[in-house]
Amino acid sequence: MKVKIKGWNTVAVWKWLANDDKCGICRAPFDGCCSDCKVPGDDCPLVWGVCSHCFHMHCIMKWLAAQQNQICPMCRQDWQLKSE
Amino acid sequence: MYELMTMASMMEDSPNAAKRPNFSAISNSNSNGISKTNSVLMVKSGVAKKLVIKNFREKPKLPEDYHAETWKKLKEAVVAIQSSTPISYCLEELYQAVENMCSYQKASQLYENLREVIEQHVKETVEPYIRGVQDRKIFLKEMEACWQAHCRQMIMIRSIFLYLDRRYVLQTPSIPSIWDMGLELFRKHVIGQQLAQTRTVDGLLMLIESERQGDVVDRLLLKSLLRMLSDLQIYQDVFEHRFLQATDALYTAEGRRLMQELDVPEYLAHVDKRLQEENERVLHYLDGGTRWALIHTVERQLISEHLGSLLAKGLENLLDNNRIQDLSLMYNLFSRVKNGLVELCTHFNSYIKKKGRTIVIDPEKDKSMVQDLLDFKDKMDNIVLTCFQKSEKFVNSVKEAFEHFINQRPNKPAELIAKFVDSKLRMGNKEATEEELERLLDKIMVIFRFIHGKDVFEAFYKKDLAKRLLVGKSASVDAEKSMLSKLKQECGGAFTSKLEGMFKDMELSRDINVAFKQYVANLRTDFDSAIDLTVNILTMGYWPTYPLVEVNLPKEMVQYQEIFNKFYLGKHSGRKLQWQPTLGQCMLKAIFDNGKKELQVSLFQALVLLLFNESEDLSYDDIKTATNIEEGELKRTLQSLACGKARVLMKEPKGKDVTEEDKFKYNLEFTNKLFRVKINQIQMKETNEEQKATEERVFQDRQYQIDAAIVRIMKMRKTLSHQLLVSELYNQLKFPVTPVDLKKRIESLIDRDYMARDKENPKQYNYVA
Ligand SMILES: [Zn+2]
Ligand SMILES: [Zn+2]
Ligand SMILES: [Zn+2]
Which residues form the Cullin family profile domain (chain B) (predicted)? Predict the structure, then answer.
C-alpha cells in the first residue's frame, strides 16, 4: 500500500424527501421555509399526506384550520398524515 | 466754583458728545503728535489749581472797560497760540477771564469774537500757504502739517475757553462747539477749496496706488490725512467713492491679466496676498468703514469674476496631485464669495464622478479596482477633511458621486468587492493584524454601501464564504463574524439570514460529527475504518448550489457514507442527503523511498492517488474510467499531481499540460522538506461560464423577488393602477430594475392568474385570490 486515507472531510446537502419542489399552498420552494418562518429545517418541517402530497407543516395546518372539511388542497381527498 | 480739568477727563465726560463727534484727532493722538501738548497743559493746570481757592474767596470788582480789556487779553493769548509764541498771561488768569465774561452775559459776544479770530487765521495764514505748493508729495506733507497745527491750536484754545464751551455752547444748540467750529472753518477755507481738495485726494490715491505697485510709502502721512477727511466728515464724499472706483479698475485689469499669466495655484496665492494687503491697508490707514466695500471689490474682481475659469483650469490638477495646501486656499477664498462653494462643490462632484468612472469602467483594471476605490475614497475623504473643513455639503457630495459612478458598471464592482473581502478573510492573508483587518473591512463597507445591486455581492460573497468554511480556509472566525455583523447592520437581517444560516450549519455539523463518532463506536458490525470522517451537512437554501457530480469511490468510503446516511436519517426523518464530492478533502498517508509523508489533497486528488495502490502505470483513460471524474476536472487534478510544485505522480511524456494520451506513475522518489505536504488544486480560472452562472442565479432570484413583491402588494391593495404599483415596487426592491423588467413580470403574473387587468380600465390591475 503506497497511499492510505487518514482523514476525510466531506460535504452533504440535506433535502426534503418531497415529490415536488414547491409547497402547493405557499408556493415557496421546499428548500426554503413557509412564509411565516425564516429558517428551513426542523423548525419548519414538511408533512406527507396519505394521498402522497406534501406541504410545509405550518401551511397545511393553517389551511386545515380555515376549512370545514379536512381535505388535501391539491387532490381534494381526505387529508390524513402518512405514518412512517 | 469752577473746576479745571485735565485733558483726559475733559475728553471722557464731555457732556455734549453729540455736538462734537469728530474727536478722533485728539483721542487717537499718539501718531498725530498732540500728546506732547497734552502733557504740558496738564502740568500747567495742576499748578493753577492752587489758585482756585484764592480767587473764590475774593470776588473782583468790575472796572468799566473790563470787557474790552479782557477780550484784548484773551485775543492776545489766541494769537500767541496761533503764531506759536509764548503766552504772556498765566493760564489761570485766562480761565478766570473767560468765566467772568460768561458771568456778565458776554458769552455770545465772546464766542463770536473767538470765531472771528480763528476764521481770520485760517483764511489768511493757512489757505494761501497751501495754495502755493506745487509738488504733490510736499503738498500732502504741508497739508498734514497745517492740519496738525490747526488741531494743536484748537485744543489749546479750547482748553482756555472751556468754560465758554461748557456753559454757553452747551445751552445753545444752534451753535457748534469750539472744536467743531474749528473744523468747520478748516473745512470751509482749506480743504473745502476745490483745488486743495482735488490735490489732496489725488495725492492720496497716488500714494495708495504706488503702495499697491510695491513701493514703500509714508503710511503715517496717509493715515493722518485720511483721518483729517474723516474728522471733517468728508471722507466718504470726496475720498471713499473714488478710492473704491480706482480699486475696482485696478483689480479688474489685474484679474484678467494674471488669469492669463499665472497657473491656478500661483493665482490663488496672489489673491490671498492681495486680500491680506488690503486688510492691512484698512488696519493702517483707511477708515474702518471702508473695509467691507474694499474687500468685497477685491473678492469680486479677483475671485467671483473668474470662478468658472479657476475651477475649469485648476481643480482637476490640484485634486490629481493632492495639493492639500492649494486646495485649502481655494476653499477659503471661494468661501468668501457668493456661490463660490456651491461651484467648487459641483466641480468637485463632477471630478469624482469622472475619475471614479475610469476606475470601475475598464475591465483591464478589474484586478486593482477595489484597492483603487479604497485609495480614491481615502484621498477624497482626506481632502474634504483637511481642505474643505469637513463641510457637510462636500461630505454628502462625495457620497453622491461615489454612489453614482460605482453603479455605472452594473454587477462587476459588487462582485469584485466580494472577492476582495474573500482575499482578506482567507487564510494566509498575513498582511494585516486583527485591528488593521477590522479597519479595512469598515472601509470596504463604506464602498459597499454605494452599490445598488447588493444581491450580486451576496451571491459572490456566499460562494467564497462557503469555500472558506468548507475547506477550512477562513483566517479568523472573529473576522468572519465581524464582517457578517457589518453586513447585517448595513443591509438588514434578511440580507444576512442565509449567511448566518451557513455558520449555523457549520455549528450543527460539529455536533452531528461528535454524535456520529459515538454512534460508530457503538456499532455492532464488523465495520472498522481507520478513516477519520467529518461531514458538513448543508441546508440547501443557505449555500450556493453545487453541480451534482457522481464519482466512483473506493468501497470503504462508500460503506462509510452509507453508515453516516443511516445515522443521519435516523435523526432527521423525511430528509435525504446529497453528497458533494467536489467539496471533499482528504488527508493521505503516503510512502515514498525517502520516508512517509502526509498529503493534504482534494477528494479527486485522493481518488487518483489511491488507484496506484493497485497498479504501477495508469493511462489517462484508465484513471478516467476508474474514477469517473469529469474530464476538465480530471485534467486539472492530474496536472496538480504531476506538473505542480509537489509532484507525487510522474507523467509520460513530460509537459506542463495533461493530454488524453498521457501515462502516469507513482513517484517513489518524491521528496519534500516538510512532513505534511499540501498539494494545491489548480484553480479553475473563473471562466465566463461560471461567472455567468452566478450572475444568472442573481438574475433569477431577482425575478422571483419581483414576483413576490408584486403579489404581496396586490394582495394587500386588491386593486392598483400600473403607475402606483410600479412606484410601490421601486420603494420595496433593493436592486436596480427597469420599468421594462417590471412590466414583463406583471405580464407573467397575469398569465399565471395571480392578478388580472381590470376589464374597464386596462391600466388597472386586480388581485386574483
Ligand atoms: Zn408552504
Ligand atoms: Zn414554517
Ligand atoms: Zn393530496
Answer: 412-642
